[in-house]
Design goal:
This protein is an all-alpha fold. The chain has a domain at 11-53. It has helices spanning 14-22, 27-38, 44-53. It is elongated, with a radius of gyration of 29 Å.
């Protein structure tokens, strides 16, 4: 195999990307900054892939720890009552759109 394996053009800017992500910049903003500061044209998806490969299985999104002393626990709101289901009528056409959970499934025959 001749030559070096592929190396990303973003490797020299790893620290800049890391600092930008720590400041909360999105991938579009980072791509714009790389273009304006360093003249490096790249898509935001390339930056996302670059970060994802080097994330070492860290979760991207995480919730902060819940503060137990400051906020009392809240109860969930009661669920709204479900509307009553209509019984299937005998005049309804027999097709797959008219499913009645009370009846067993039947195989439909094709009409010519």
């Amino acid at each position: 195999m001749p030559g070096k394996p592929f190396q990303s053009k973003l490797i020299p800017h790893t620290e800049f990307i890391r600092e930008s992500r720590a400041r909360g910049l999105g991938y579009r903003e980072i791509a714009a900054e790389l273009r304006s500061r360093f003249g490096l044209r790249t898509a935001p998806a390339n930056i996302f892939s670059f970060v994802k490969v080097r994330a070492r299985r860290r979760p991207v999104f995480s919730l902060p720890q819940r503060e137990t002393s400051a906020v009392p626990p809240t109860r969930p709101a009661p669920a709204a009552p479900r509307p009553p289901t209509r019984p299937a009528t005998a005049t309804a056409p027999a097709n797959w759109l008219n499913y009645d959970p009370e009846k067993p499934l039947e195989k439909l025959t094709r009409s010519p």
